[in-house]
Design goal:
150 residues, mainly beta, six-stranded parallel sheet, 1 helix, 12 strands, globular
Length: 150
């Protein structure tokens, strides 16, 4: 299960590892937080907020009308969102310590919502094709969730 999560997170990061320009970006980082946003296309929107210590947020969007929103509270949390296509939406929430969420969406019309409240939780989501929906909520410590849809 952990290997599947590592693969999901690697795909979310590696699938979009080339440069671009940001079109719309709103971020707030505090206490040594890290935010990286890369967008290509038109009509993409991003919003991120961080409160705590050493939280990391990475968003890559390519295509049109994609949206990504992330809220991180606590310490050492990490989110990687990669979207390619059109009208994809990803929303992540983290509260606690050491939580990890990776989202990769290819195609159009996908929606992901993740929520992590606790410590050491991990979520990996990969969606391809069209119009998939995924939701994962984790409360407590050490939970692992992997969702793959095509």
């Amino acid at each position: 299960m952990i290997m599947n999560l590592r693969i999901a997170l690697s795909l979310a990061a590696a699938a979009f590892a080339f440069g671009g320009t940001a079109t719309l970006a709103t971020t707030y980082a505090k206490a040594d937080g890290y935010v990286s946003i890369d967008q290509r296309g038109w009509g993409n929107g991003t919003a991120g907020s961080q409160r705590g210590f050493r939280n990391r947020l990475t968003i890559h969007q390519y295509g049109s009308r994609n949206s990504a929103h992330s809220r991180q509270y606590g310490n050492y949390n990490r989110v990687v969102i990669g979207q390619q296509g059109s009208r994809n939406s990803a929303n992540t929430y983290q509260n606690g310590r050491g939580n990890i969420a990776g989202v990769a969406q290819f195609g159009s019309g996908h929606t992901v919502a993740t929520s992590q409240d606790g410590s050491g939780n991990a979520i990996g989501v990969i969606q391809g094709g069209r119009n998939n929906r995924a939701t994962s909520t984790q409360i407590g410590a050490g939970n692992v969730s992997v969702i793959v849809q095509d």
